[in-house]
């Protein structure tokens, strides 16, 4: 969570943000991606570069995705894959690509015509072997070599011109129909681009000697990752996009990726190099960067801003660039924690009543002390929803903690207040002990099961599901004694 001011929100808009937790995905591989609403400063500045990664464009782009993550072993391994892809490329004259690993758990990858190729450490954790990583990178390079960005921009400009003309020369209803038709044309064109990049990527990785089925395996993992996040935050299934979506659904892409691989050969061909890949990513950070705040069970800790708080029993927490979100799985309850800067002489009560949130009950506003920090608490209501608010001053920031519930019962209110009172400043020793979770590799012993291996995982929630996701397993699958599996440890 960054300390950036947020625009004024109504209570209903706040509710939508609290409950509508973002679903993760890959920017080009899948539209179901987290949107970074504010840039983060690089947390691990890169050293001097002699290649095109020293450009302003590169620096600005890296800053938007959490900074560059330094993992020399993983970067060297991925650059080795790129060298093989270059020798098998459909366009031999394309630039020599170099990998930059981005410091974010969001699953994402993209390439630029300059020769910069970016993958997130979240993607490295999700990919299961070298062929899956190769498929992602080949897909992104295909977007560049096929000039998809330029073609998409041109088609969108044409769509804008046609829709504007339709609005002028035809009646409003007809104009809406033409605009809708043109949007479908743009969306169809974009879906075709994605499928073209998938097919091109499959061909290239196969010519480079990799398993062509790596693309479909990674897309399967991506869909499962999206579904797991959806399940964690109360969605019945992953978010579906309508016909105007610019990307096809993951199942459709999996089917076509498998078909493209079958044109090359039956399963079992090509190199996957799972062991080499796992060795390369061993030790890479997993999940939140602890200096930007991290979740452990129901507790959220932010070492850089030096505070911690604990959510009520049953809440699942998610840290994002904008705020900390939480939902209770079985109940209509949610929470949000964010921060804003405020002059030290600003009155807290005046701030709470300034229109920051609609539906405020003025009679509910009262001052209190929370672990030595000045605070104001209040209640707001909007329709059938009730909000318990707390604004806490700590240093130069105001921390805004909001609980939403359909029915704010005495029991729920007591739990919310207990959580509000858990907010506290961290001591010096606590801020120096922030350690990220990391990818480790464990060897399955005779008799090990998914459950026994998952018991070694250190993740905020659902270790069994995360273990299966990271290792491409399904419930009931048997582990192979002596095989290497990804786990998450401190």
Characterization of the model:
By secondary structure, this protein is of the alpha+beta class. The protein folds into three domains: 39-285, no CATH class; 290-431, 3-Layer(aba) Sandwich (Protein Transport Mog1p, Chain A), CATH 3.40.1000.10; 437-489, Membrane-bound Lytic Murein Transglycosylase D, Chain A, CATH 3.10.350. The protein is built from 15 helices and 17 strands. Strands 8-9-10-14-13-12-11 form a seven-stranded antiparallel beta sheet, sandwiched between helices. Helix 5 (130-145) packs across helix 7 and helix 5 (130-145) packs across helix 8 (214-232). The longest helix has 36 residues, at 172-207. Mean pLDDT is 77; it is low at 2-50, 158-189 and 235-247.
Distance between the amino and carboxyl termini: 21 Å
Task: Please state the average pLDDT score.
Answer: 77
Q: Helix tally?
A: 15
Low-confidence runs? 2-50, 158-189, 235-247
Q: Please provide the count of β strands.
A: 17
Strand order of the largest sheet: 8-9-10-14-13-12-11
Q: Label the structural class.
A: alpha+beta
Query: What's the quaternary structure here?
Result: single chain
What does the main sheet amount to?
Answer: 7 strands, antiparallel
* Percent range for β-strand residues: 15-25%
Rg (CA only): 24 Å
Shape: elongated
Helix content: 25-40%
Domain tally: 3
GO biological process, one term: proteolysis involved in protein catabolic process
GO cellular component, one term: membrane
Protein name: Zn-dependent protease
Keywords: Hydrolase, Metal-binding, Metalloprotease, Protease, Zinc
Question: What's a quick, concise take on this entry?
Answer:
The chain has 490 residues and is an alpha+beta fold. Helices cover 38% and strands 19% of the residues.
């Amino acid at each position: 969570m960054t300390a950036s001011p947020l625009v004024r929100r109504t209570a209903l808009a706040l509710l939508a943000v609290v409950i509508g937790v973002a679903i993760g995905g890959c920017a080009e591989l899948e539209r179901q991606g987290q949107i970074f609403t504010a840039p983060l400063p690089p947390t691990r500045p890169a050293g001097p570069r002699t290649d095109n990664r020293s450009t302003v464009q590169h620096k600005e782009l890296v800053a938007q995705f959490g900074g560059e993550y330094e993992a020399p072993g993983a970067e060297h391994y991925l650059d080795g894959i790129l060298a093989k892809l270059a020798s098998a490329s459909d366009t031999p004259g394309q630039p020599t690509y170099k990998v930059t690993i981005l410091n974010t758990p969001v699953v994402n990858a993209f390439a630029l015509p300059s020769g910069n190729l970016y993958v997130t450490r979240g993607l490295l954790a999700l990919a299961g072997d070298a062929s899956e990583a190769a498929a992602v990178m080949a897909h992104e390079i295909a977007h560049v070599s096929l000039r998809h960005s330029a073609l998409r921009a041109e088609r969108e400009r044409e769509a804008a011109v046609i829709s504007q003309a339709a609005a002028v020369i035809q009646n409003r209803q007809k104009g809406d129909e033409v605009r809708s038709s043109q949007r479908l044309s743009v969306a169809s064109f974009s879906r075709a681009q994605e499928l073209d990049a998938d097919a091109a990527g499959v061909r290239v990785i196969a010519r480079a000697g990799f398993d062509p089925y790596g693309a479909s395996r990674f897309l399967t993992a991506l869909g499962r990752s999206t579904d797991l996040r959806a399940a964690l935050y109360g969605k019945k299934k992953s978010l579906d996009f309508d016909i105007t979506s610019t990307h096809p659904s993951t199942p459709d892409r999996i089917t076509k990726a498998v078909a493209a691989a079958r044109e090359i050969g039956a399963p079992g061909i090509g190199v996957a190099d799972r062991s080499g890949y796992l060795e390369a990513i061993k030790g890479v950070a997993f999940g939140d960067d602890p200096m930007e705040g991290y979740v452990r069970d129901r507790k959220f800790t932010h070492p850089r801003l030096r505070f911690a708080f604990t959510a009520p029993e049953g809440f699942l927490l998610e840290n994002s660039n904008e705020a900390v979100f939480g939902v209770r799985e079985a109940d209509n309850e949610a929470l949000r924690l964010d921060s804003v800067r405020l002059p030290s002489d600003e009155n807290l009560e005046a701030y709470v009543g300034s229109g920051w949130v609609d539906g405020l009950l003025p009679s509910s506003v009262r001052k209190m002390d929370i672990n030595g920090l000045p605070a104001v608490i209040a209640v707001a209501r909007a329709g059938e929803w009730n909000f318990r608010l707390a604004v806490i001053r700590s240093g130069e920031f105001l921390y805004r903690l909001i609980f939403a519930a359909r029915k704010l019962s005495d029991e729920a209110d007591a739990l919310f207040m207990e959580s509000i009172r858990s907010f506290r400043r961290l001591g010096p020793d606590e801020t120096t002990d922030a350690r990220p979770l990391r990818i480790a590799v464990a060897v399955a012993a005779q008799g090990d099961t998914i459950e026994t291996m998952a018991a070694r995982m250190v993740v905020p929630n659902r270790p069994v599901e995360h273990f299966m996701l990271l290792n491409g397993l399904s419930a009931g699958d048997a582990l192979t004694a002596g095989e290497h599996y990804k786990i998450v440890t401190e």
